[in-house]
Structures are given as structure tokens and as C-alpha cells.
Amino acid sequence: MKKLSILFIALSLLISCKTDKKTAEIISKKTPIVTQEMMETAIIYEANIRQYSPEGSFTEFTKDIPVLKELGVKIIWLMPVHPISMTKRKATGDTFVSDIKDPEERKKYLGSYYAVSDYRGVSSDYGTKDDLRDLIKTAHENEMLVILDWVPNHTGWDHSWIKEHPEFYTKNAKGEITEPLNEDGTPVGWQDVADLDYSNEGLRKAMIADLQYWLKDENIDGFRCDVAGSLPIEFWQEAVPQLRDTKDIFMLAEAWEPELLKGTNLFDMCYGWESHFLMVDIAKGKKSVKDWDQYMVKMDTFYEKDDIIMNFTVNHDENSWKGTVKESFGDADEVMAVLSYVTPGMPLIYSGQEYDLNHKLKFFEKDSIPKTKGKYFDLYSKLQSLKVKNAALNGGKDAASCQRIKTSDDEHILAFTREKNGKQISFIANLSDKSTTFTIDYEATVKNFFTGKNETYKKGQEINLTPWSYLLLEN
Hints:
Layout: H1 2-30, H2 36-41, E1 43-47, H3 49-52, H4 58-63, H5 65-70, E2 73-78, E3 90-92, E4 95-96, H6 103-107, H7 129-141, E5 145-150, E6 154-156, H8 161-164, E7 193-195, H9 201-216, E8 222-225, H10 233-246, E9 250-253, E10 269-271, H11 273-283, H12 289-302, E11 308-311, H13 316-322, H14 325-329, H15 333-342, E12 346-350, H16 375-389, E13 401-404, E14 413-420, E15 423-430, E16 436-439, E17 444-448, E18 454-457, E19 462-465, E20 470-474
Parallel strand pairs: 1-2, 1-12, 2-5, 5-8, 8-9, 9-10, 10-11, 11-12
Antiparallel strand pairs: 3-4, 6-7, 13-14, 14-15, 15-20, 16-19, 17-18, 17-20
Helix pairs in contact: 9-10, 11-12, 15-16
């Protein structure tokens, strides 16, 4: 009997080893590797699973992954998929769900995605973990990475750490766990979450272990880290190298601080907040192209050459709290969308943007995006084809150069050429609400990308552009 038991154990180990080897082979074949080439041509898509479909499920989103491939998406960023805290769950404004007496009314409010109660779980509102695994598998089969929105700064109030590890949290003078506070001690306004204290070594180890779970057990390809600049840089210097030792990953910081991208072992990409707000101000007539020129000069000195900036006209915060693309940009919406693709960096598409989303998605309640292809689906499809085939739009760690073209009206006309490996793209745009006639220091015979016609330009030649119109020229 003892010999049979040993034989059974040996056979079990052999089968297990073969299964593990087979699984590893499948993963290696199906998981797209985070490569230099991928980053140069990538477009990132922010997926709001709750609002993406009437069902608000992983399964419904997974069905559309091949559609995203038509838009050149290489990275899918999933907004937080974790269970949301019931304790202090936000309803609207400063109201909690618990403040609402009507039980039917309470059901409407689903809380903030960013009040996480379990870093290793998934919200049943979206489906099961198997549904999420199918989403990841489908994305990998379509040569896309999947990164999770990670919320390391705080947890929901019913996270198990509140009771099991109160030492992980920030305390007030009375020894009570607090919500996130400003530097002067006043509340940030996020009453539905509890602030984490990164001076605690145990917290740092636990957070890294939870991050590693998604890389090792669920084959996730990286993370978008919420309010990354609010954490001590020392944590990221400790955590990110360990994550990169596990597998090739892509790391996005919701931050602007250049120190978060220093070297090769921290974040790959940060937010282009400054360029976004600058585009909004130009569209509203508050700033001009001269301000954009100053911004571009600053970028050359502020960031290192291999730092990637995420360019966007909208994201979940801007849409839900500030307004729609049309409200932000008015008639400048299209030219700013094109600028987000052709300026150095990686463009972002937020859920619904490809379908001309023109309403503010509810943040704490169920909502849904449109699904009819229109102006923007066509525009993004064309732009992605250019970005993939033309190295002059490379925007990764070896981005194409960007050279300003002088015009006779540099206050209203933005003109620049990007170039790499003998490929060249020129962008000339009237970033004002008035028709403008100007001359340009530019000489070339090129193809107009949108009309397909060849055009010849000579130095000193007069060009007229109507308000918010633009040219995209291929050499």
C-alpha cells in the first residue's frame, strides 16, 4: 500500500508538471510581449466596464475587443474591477447610500470604482473571475495588453485590513483611521475611502503581494496606478522592479511628475494633464499657439527622451465631472482629437469616445455609452492606420522627432513636422475661431492624408485655413 501511495504521488506530480508546462506554453503563445515596437504605435483604450454596455459586464465588453482592434488599440486599461465597499458607499455629492431611506432608491447607487474592498477580487456586478479571464485571453489573442486600474492610495471602509491591519492606515490625533487629507490636514473630499500609510513596511509588502497576484495568477500585463504621485517615490522604487522581474509589463502613472518615469525600472507613461488643459484653454480662446510652443519647449527639458506622455481629449474624470468633449472643445473638438494623435506620445480613447459620446456618464449610477459608428470611429480608424504604417508618428521610448515649422502667424497657426527613419508627417492647423491667411516656411510635394491628393507647397506661399481646420501631410 505504501509503494502504491508513493507511485500515485509521483504520477500526480508528473501530470502536474506537464499541465504547468502546457499552461506556460499557452500563456507564452497568447500573451503579447511588451515590446519597443508595440509602444511606438500603440493606442490605449480606457474601458469603463460598468458603462460600456447596458449589461455592464465583462462578457459584453469582450465581444467588442475585435472592434477595438480596428481602432489600433494595443493596450486595454480596465477601470477598477474590484468589489466596491458597502460601508460609506457614495451616492451623490456628500450623500452616502446609507443616508437614503427608500430601499429601491438605494439600489441605484453603485458607489465609486475607487473604493476597493478586496484587491484580489472582482465585482459581481461585472461578472465572475472566469469572465475576466476570458476577457484577458481574448485580448491576448487579438495582440492587446490588459492593464488593471490599481488604487494604492486608499481602500474602501470594509476592506479586511481595516480590522486585521489598522496599522496600515493613516490615523488622526485620536488614533482613528482617516479619509485622505490635504497637506494642511483638511479632507480631500473622498469620505468613502480610508487613507493608507506607506511608512508601514507591512503595508508595502502586502500591496506588492496583491499586485504580484494579478501578474502571476491572472496573466495581467501591468497597471494604471491611481494618484501615483501621492505615494512616496520610495514605494514605487521598491515595487515596480519586483513586478518587472515577474514578467514584461506596461506601467501607467496617473501623475505628471517626471521622477516617476526615471530610468528603466519605474513607470513607462504618465498623464499629459498639462497638454490636455492647454488644448481646452486654446479651444476656449483663453490661450494661444504661443502657449503650446512654450509647453513643447518645456517638455524637452522636463522629461527624458524615453518618457511616454498619454495624450487625451477626455477620460473618465473629465467626462463625468467636467463635461463632454463638445462642451470642453466646442468646434475645436476634431482638430484637438487629431492633435492628440500626431503630437509626441500615446493617444487615449475613452469608452464611448469612438461612438461620438456626447453626454456625461454617471459616476455612481448605471449608465451606458452609444454604440453607433459615426464621425469619430471613422476618424480614429484612419489615424490609427497612419500611426501604424508611418514611423514619423512613433510615440514610444524611441519617438519620432518633432520640429516646429515657422509661419507668419505663430499665435494662431500650429505647424510642425515629425520625422523618423526617412518618414515624415507634417501637421498644419488653425487653432482659432477665425479664418486665417498666412505664409509658411515649408517646401515639399506631399500627399494630403485625408484627400489622398498630392499637393505642392513652397516657402512664402499663402495658405488660408478656416476656423479649427487642419492639414495632415505625408512625405
